[in-house]
Structures are given as structure tokens and as C-alpha cells.
Design goal:
- The chain is α/β, with parallel strands linked by helices.
- It folds into 2 domains: 132 residues, P-loop containing nucleotide triphosphate hydrolases (Rossmann fold, 3-Layer(aba) Sandwich), CATH 3.40.50; 63 residues.
- It is 27% helix and 29% strand.
- The chain has a 6-stranded mixed β-sheet, sandwiched between helices.
- The longest helix is centred in the middle third of the chain and has 13 residues.
- 36% of the residues are buried.
- One of its GO terms (cellular component) is plasma membrane.
- It comes from Korarchaeum cryptofilum (strain OPF8).
- This is ABC transporter related.
- Pfam families: ABC_tran.
Length: 205
Amino acid sequence: MKEGGESEAVLEVKDVHKRFGRHHVLKGVDLKVNRGEIVGITGENGSGKSTLLKVIVGLLPFDRGEVILHGTFGYCPQNPVLFDDLTMEENIEYFSAAYGIEDGISRGNELMKLLRCEQFRGKPARYLSGGTRQKLNLIISLLHDPDILILDEPYQGFDYESYLSFWDLIGRMEGKSVLVVSPMVYERHYFTKIYRLEDGRLKYE
């Protein structure tokens, strides 16, 4: 906390606009995520949720506004970015080396246990189920222990046990922030705040 009781922001989005040709997708989005908060964004398919996340992490330019990240972020895209010919463990080794993470392999092993997928460590990514590929996607985004984790539909393909393991993992991330985008928000008690993206703007639910 900052002096005076003001919450410490890890992410600030200010009046962000994004157009694709004549299609005005984001029409002045404002968002603040404070340290330790779990924030959900829901909305209809095609409402611009994934576009907003890509703008936040720098994968898409925006037309107007400001995005400020205070600290490091981990990004888990909707479609896993993996090397299909490498095993689960080899993917973790590759991304650890690519990002210069010294303890990435041990961190990856710990995360595999928490997400209950360590039995697949020697299996090539192309043969993993959709849910297990998504777990590997999540593990890679967490290897460097980011200040904020930005997740685009992170539990698609999960069975209920995997869904519970996901939230158990999130609950262990003390002092970290999480931004989750999903078409539906089920257990609302997991979230500090929930917004709905509608007509290009975020509305507090």
C-alpha cells in the first residue's frame, strides 16, 4: 500500500481506443488493477476482450489512450504457443533458457505438480489434450514469477478437477495480481472485481 492508504496499481489502462478500419472495438477503456487483486473481464464473443489483452501486453497498437504496467507481466494467450515436437519438460526448458530464467526448470516442475500434470512431462506437446496444453501454456507464463498474470480464457478445456487446481494455484500467488478474461464467470467469490466489456467500454458488475 502507498502512503495514505491508496492501493498500489500494477496495471493502469486510461481511455484506450482501438479501431480495425471502421470498426471501433475499444471506445475509451479505463481499468486499474491493484497489487494482490484478481480482476475478471467478461463479455460476449467478439466484444473485444482478447483485443484489450493484446493491447495491454503490447501485441497490438492502439489508437489513443495510455497503458501503464508497473512491474513484470506473464501472458497466457487463448491459443497456446508451444513447440509441438518438444515434450512438456523440453518446452519448459526452452522457454526458461530463452527468457534467461535460472530456476525455470525447478519452477516448472513445481507448477506441474500443483496443476497435476507432471505425469505428462515426457510427452510431446502435440499429443497432449487441449486442457493439458493449456496447463503448459499457463506454466510457461508463470516461469518468471510475474507481478501480474494476464490470462485469456485460461481454463478452457479443463475438467472440474483441473479447474479447482487452477484456482488453488492462483490462491497461492500471495501479493500477485491476476487479470482473467472469460466469456462466463462462474465462482464470482474468487474475484476482487468483475467487469463486463460491452459496446467498447468496461462496466463494473
